[in-house]
Amino acid sequence: MPRPISSTEFYEESAQFCQYTYRVAKFFLVQKLICIGIFKSLPVFSKLDVKDQLIIFQYVAHPVSLLGVYFASYKLGSRTMIGKDGFYPMATFAYQFSFKNDKTLFSLANKVLSKPIEPFFDIGISKEEFSLILAIVFLNPDIPNLSESARNILSKEFSYYSKMLLDYLHNKLGIDAGTKKYAECFHLITASFIGAKNLQLLITYQEAFYKRPLESFLMPKCFKDI
């Protein structure tokens, strides 16, 4: 458990969040490593060619990373993205003078850092449900450019894990409520992909209007293709 961030550190991190700092570098690296770990833990991983593995990872890495951060924030009781040390990125866009009066920038940041967390509170997600949701994201057979073999493998696995989630919810909540929550779980997946697209829009907007280099939000070259 990281130590709580001090008020001085909070101010400094808020001021530097949109720059390439140690915290930003660590965040992106850790999230990518977590994604790799989750993917490799699935039985389907070893059945896929390396090329298909890379295609899947590149397609889902950002949505899965956001899903994980959203869920962690939800478990901490926060309606905005927050770390265990208490730092929340939305503070940068709410308090920095150069950002807080830019309604477009604030709206984009809100769509990435806060709004996608609201459904977690509306639905209420357990760790077991979230684990199955993560697996389902990786098992999408409709990811572009996959080989036919990979699509066939993923299709079977997707059906298996989807049914596992549905059966779990039926047993837990009953048929009607379980089916409703099953649909809501897929809404969370959709929201994570929308969040990833909004993140790219946020990055592009800052690059265009604030001259923030894209590299400030990405990993160094040696990590970008992990």
Automatic annotation (TrEMBL):
Q: Name one Pfam family in it.
A: Hormone_recep
Task: State the source organism's domain of life.
Answer: Eukaryota
Task: Identify the InterPro entries for this entry.
Answer: NHR-like_dom_sf (IPR035500), Nucl_hrmn_rcpt_lig-bd (IPR000536)
**Gene3D superfamilies given for it?**
Retinoid X Receptor
Query: Record's SUPFAM superfamilies?
Result: Nuclear receptor ligand-binding domain
Swiss-Prot/TrEMBL keywords = Receptor, Transcription, Transcription regulation
SMART domains, sorted: HOLI
What family, per the record?
Belongs to the nuclear hormone receptor family.
Q: What is this protein called?
A: NR LBD domain-containing protein
> What PANTHER family has UniProt attached to this entry?
NR LBD DOMAIN-CONTAINING PROTEIN-RELATED (PTHR45886:SF18), NUCLEAR HORMONE RECEPTOR FAMILY-RELATED-RELATED (PTHR45886)
Residue intervals of the NR LBD domain = 1-226
